[in-house]
Amino acid sequence: MKYSLIAILLLLLTSCEAKHDLPIATALQDNWQFKAVNDSIWHVATVPGNVHADLLDNKLIEHPFIGANEDSLQWISETDWEYKTTFSVPNETLSKKHIALNFEGLDTYASVFLNDSLILKTDNAFRAFSVNVKSVLKPQNKLRIVFEHTSISEEQEKAKLGYQLPEGNRIFTRKAQFQYGWDWGPELNTSGIWRPIMLETWNDLRLEDLTIKQRLLNDSIADMTATFDIKSEVIKDKELVYEVYVNDVLHTTSKVVQKGHTRTVPFQIKSPKLWWPHNLGDPYLYTIKMVLKRNNSIIDSVSIKKGLRTIALVTENDTRGESFYFKVNGVPVYMKGANYIPQNSMQNKVTDAHYEKLLDDVVDANMNMLRVWGGGIYENDIFYDLCDEKGILIWQDFMFACAMYPGDQSFLENVQDEATQNIKRLRNHASIALWCGNNENSEGWHRWGWQANRSDEEKDEIWNNYLKVFDSILPKTVNEFTDAPYWESSPKYGRGNPKYQFEGDAHDWWIWHDAYPFEHLEDNVPRFMSEFGFQAFPSYEAIRYINQSDSLEITSEGFKNHQKHVRGFQLIDAYMKRDFPVPDTAEDYIYLSQILQAYGITKGIEAHRRAKPYNMGTLYWQLNDCWPSVSWSSIDFFGNWKALHYKAKTSFENVLISNTVENDTLKTYGINDSLTGFDDTFTYIITDFDGKVMGTGTTMNTQLNANSSQLIHTLDVANLNINKDEVVVATMFANFHSYAYLVKPKDLKLKKGAIKKTISKTSNGFEIKLESTTLQKDVFLYTKSKGHFSDNYFDLMPNETIIIEFKTQEGSLDDLKIKTLNDLMD
Ligand code: BMA
Q: Is the pLDDT of residue 325 over 60?
């Protein structure tokens, strides 16, 4: 769809061309074919794309996401591949003074031949390359690109180095690191033309790198500049007129400051509407257009969407260590969200609709920040456009993860270009809150045994090379091209360093990797939790897909290949035994693994939020999957919400009542992330599982201040005349409530009882009414129909009526089933 739109735009542009002589960009996306270099048969290829997807689309391989197929597909990464196309260029285009071929993403070691001349060699999938092809281009052209498999260069670089760097050969190649296999992803090290190739032509002048800078921003004024480059040997500046349009209204004409190729046009907006993360306000975007004219004709124009906001990362000494929080428009903002990984190992299979849906799910779950993790990709523009629109802030890692990287001159220059290009590409996005150097490289070096058996010289060299990239090139480049803050490495300190809890961001992998109980999250709250997580099985749909079978098989070799963590199944089991009954059917086990994940992770989220403002953010690991798998994700590969996504939605509400039991005291906190305070009557009601009231209390005028967390009530449960395993405590304001249990789920004396369900058809699906005389815990609704439940995995209180909506295109819901924790108790 995107490209048909581009085609229409191109047509429009072409029709204006005679009048205005505008630069034109055409995507070379047609007539592509591919083959293995040593092969002779060409097959149809999709561009942009990748070799795995092309082989699959031509039915030359089995689907890599099914069973253990991945294992037998490793030859693809050990093969050199060749892509070719032909295209014609009209004489009018050939006569343009400037003709460039822009390669927006070649993965990775590519040799590009235009009409049999080698015009380009590349070595970085994260960089765009532009080649002046004026002298080589003809009316009929042949474009051919040969991709050499990555291990050739990697082995050469390794041999030069003389020692081994952690972790593996991937560090030598600037491409998505997760493609070499990760603990949630397959090893599908693909290659190909993964971003568009554009033929760009212009005559005398072209406007480049438009950036809108805020010199001053407050409620009364936005004092800004539009800065851009123009390169022209023929047009004199005095011939040009510069116009700035704000929301399609002409705002400013001329007044240009010139510095080399760079032009700066100052302009102001009075009483500007500020951009806010969606949970605090409107993510308002202005449309700002820069138009260049000569003799009253437009010669180039660029339009961008721009949210006006200030962003700061505040790291200041305080009585306990050093703060770590973001200020947006001068206001400290608590960050709630998750870590984002690429949505598919075959990136071209990610459609605009996938981006739209996933980011809607982020907003729906009350998240205001995602961390784009450093082992994936600098995302496509649409990702950041949608985050701007939807009011989601982005913690953007540079693409380095869990390793030490080389530091030779050509690697550093390559990184320098990659950083400059990506920062420039993304700097106009209001959503970008932070650039972070890498994921866990510093922690790995200091705490994962990577220094063992190395000489002092070797260690110095490796660490100095780290500093060259993460302490020099990247911060300097961020500083030069954007106002966004820079952070060297996530986390600042590894677990085990005593400063972990008091300074910087933290990754708590005591949970999961070190098998600590979930309660550890409550006792170890850091300043900002940028990773912590726990695995769960995906939906029944994903499991059926992996096995290509209707039965829910979780011990098949094919299925086990979709658990990439060596101790994954054992860890899930060990944690389940601690807090839940362990079911004996696959169907129940899958369900309960999700309840377990949600239980543990929301325990962490709420502990972090209760500790506000000491703690100012909680991002769990991980939002999504790149293939169907058992992983830490809260949304599976097919877009199904796991229990965690539903429960995180509640735990991320702007106003949250959060309970915790400490030494037989039920402590109730009121957390208010909104920027207005309120007071309300607080009530608690203790009932048994049949709804019999065992105690109640009310406090009038309980104040909940803006942007705060407060202890609002304590209840000594030791002296109450109740059985702790037979009660639930509802803690409530008029519009907010939360349920507290006083023992672990496995110790609850839940009763068996039927749930009465009434289903009725609605205009976009079904409405399901549920009632029960006894408390039903973790009620799970499921069906083979594709759709989305408005809520799921919830507790149904005794004699309460809950109405759930199921959004679907399907006409019936006859197979709706219900599962509860009650069913699994002895
Ligand atoms: C974190 C991430 C990933 C990893 C995850 C789960 O360290 O940065 O590298 O997948 O843990 O192990």
A: yes
| Pocket flag, ligand 1, residue 313 (CB < 6 Å) | no
Nearest to 257 by CA among 237, 239, 276, 271: 237
- Could you say which DSSP state residue 472 is in? I
Ligand 1 pocket member 545 (CB < 6 A)? no
Report the CATH number of the 24-200 domain: 2.60.120.260
- In percent, the amount of the chain with pLDDT more than 70 equals 98
Maximum pairwise Cα distance, the chain: 92
Percentage above 90 pLDDT, the chain: 94
**Does residue 31 register a pLDDT over 90?**
yes
Look up the pTM and report it. 0.96
**Across residues 452-467, what is the average pLDDT?**
98
| Nearest ligand 1 atom to alpha carbon 533 | 6
Which residue has a Cα nearest atom 10 of ligand 1? 183
C-alpha 302/C-alpha 177 separation (Å) is 34
Q: What is the pLDDT of residues 196-248, one digit of tens each?
A: 999 999 998 899 999 999 999 999 999 999 999 997 877 777 888 999 999 99
Of 621, 624, 634, best ligand 1 pocket probe by most atoms within 8 Å of the beta carbon: 621
**Contact (Cβ atoms closer than 8 angstroms) between residue 578 and residue 592:** no
Which residue in 325, 321, 344 sits closest to 336, CA to CA? 325
Residue with CA nearest ligand 1 atom 9? 402
656-747 — its CATH code? 2.60.40.10
Ligand 1 pocket test: which of 167, 182, 183, 601 has the largest number of ligand atoms within 8 Å of its C-beta?
183
| 222 DSSP β-pair partners | 217, 269
588 within ligand 1 shell (Cβ under 6 A): no
Domain ranges, ordered by start, for the chain: 24-200, 330-554+602-653, 656-747, 756-824
Q: What superfamily in CATH does domain 756-824 come from?
A: Immunoglobulins (2.60.40.10)
**Model confidence at 287: pLDDT above 50:** yes
Tell me whether the CATH fold assigned to 656-747 matches the one assigned to 756-824: yes
| pLDDT over threshold 80, residue 3 | no
Q: Per DSSP, what are the bridge partners of residue 434?
A: 395
What SS3 string covers 788-806? Answer: EECCCCEEECCCCEEEEEE
Give the residue, by CA position, lying nearest to ligand 1 atom 7: 440
pLDDT confidence band for 94 (50 / 70 / 90): very high
Q: Is 402 in the pocket of ligand 1 (CB under 6 A)?
A: yes
At the topology level of CATH, where does 330-554+602-653 sit?
TIM Barrel (3.20.20)
Q: Is 389 helix (H, G, I), strand (E, B) or coil?
A: helix
> 184 CB less than 6 Å from ligand 1?
yes
Cα(510) to ligand 1 centroid in Å equals 12
What integer is the mean pLDDT of 359-369?
99
- 10 Å CB burial of residue 175 (0-12, 13-18, 19+) is buried
Residues near 368 by Cβ (< 8 Å), separated by ≥ 6? 277, 278, 279, 280, 333, 335, 336, 337, 391, 392, 393
